[in-house]
Amino acid sequence: MLVSFLTIATSIYIVLVTLLYLFQDRMVFLPNLPDRALIATPADIGLHYEDVSLATSDDETLHGWYIPVTNPRGVLLFFHGNAGNISHRLDSVKIFNDLGLDTLIIDYRGYGQSTGQASEQGTYLDAQTAWDYLVDNRGIPAERIIIFGRSLGGAIGAWLGTQRTSAAVIIESSFSSGVDMAHRLYPFLPARLITRLQYPVADYAGRLNCPVLVIHSRHDEIIPFDMGRAIYAAVKQDKRFLELKGDHNNGFLISHTDYVDGLRNFTGVILGP
Known about the structure:
This protein is α/β, with parallel strands linked by helices and about 270 residues long. It is built from eleven helices and eight strands. It has a single domain, classed as Alpha/Beta hydrolase fold, catalytic domain (Rossmann fold, 3-Layer(aba) Sandwich), CATH 3.40.50.
C-alpha cells in the first residue's frame, strides 16, 4: 500500500515538473490577461502621441506609442510589466510626461497589437529594436535616453542596459532572477534545474555602467522587497534606492508624491532640471 502511494506520488511529481518545464513560457508571459485589446490611448488623457510600428531582426512587428512633450529634457524608454498591454500603463505615461520626458512605450511580441509569441530572448530582441528606433530613426543621443522597466520590464530593461550605454537605468518592482522567483513560487520543486527563463536581473544590475535607480515597495505581495534590495546591492557604482508603500501593481500610485519626487530628483541629476 505504501509502495503504491509513493509510486503514484512520484509519478504525479514527475508529471508536474515536466509540465512546468515544457509550458513555462505560457505560464509566465500573460499577454491575454485581461486581454490583448487596447482599452485607451494617450489621447484619452489629453496627450498627443504617435503610433509606432517597429520591425525586429527576426521579422516580428512591435506596436508602441511615442508620446512627446514640448522642450523635452530627455526620452524615457518604458518596458512595462507582465499582463495587459501599453494601454493599461497610461498612469505612468502621464507621470513621465509631467516630468518633461518624451516616452516610448512598446508592447513585447505577443502582447497588445504586436505579433509573435513572447520568450526571454524575444523580449531582449524587442528591447534592442526599441532602442535602435530611438537612436537610429529618431536621432536621439544615447546620453539622453533613460531606460525604465517595471516588474518583468525591469528584467528586460536591465538586460538592455548591459548592451547599450544609456543616461541611466530605472528598475522598479522587479525580481532578482527567474530562478529566485521560481524558488519562491514553487519551493517544493528543483527550481534551478527546471527554470528555463533565467532573467538574471541582479547579475545584469552588477554590469551596468550608468547611474541606477532601484524602486520597490516593502509591501509588494508578488515580488518580495528583499529582491529589490538584492538588485540594489548588486549595482557597483552610482545608485539610489526609492522605497514605496503599497502593493505590487499600485505602489507607485499609492506613494504618488514620494514616487514622483524621487523620479524628479533622479532624472534632474541625470538630465538637468
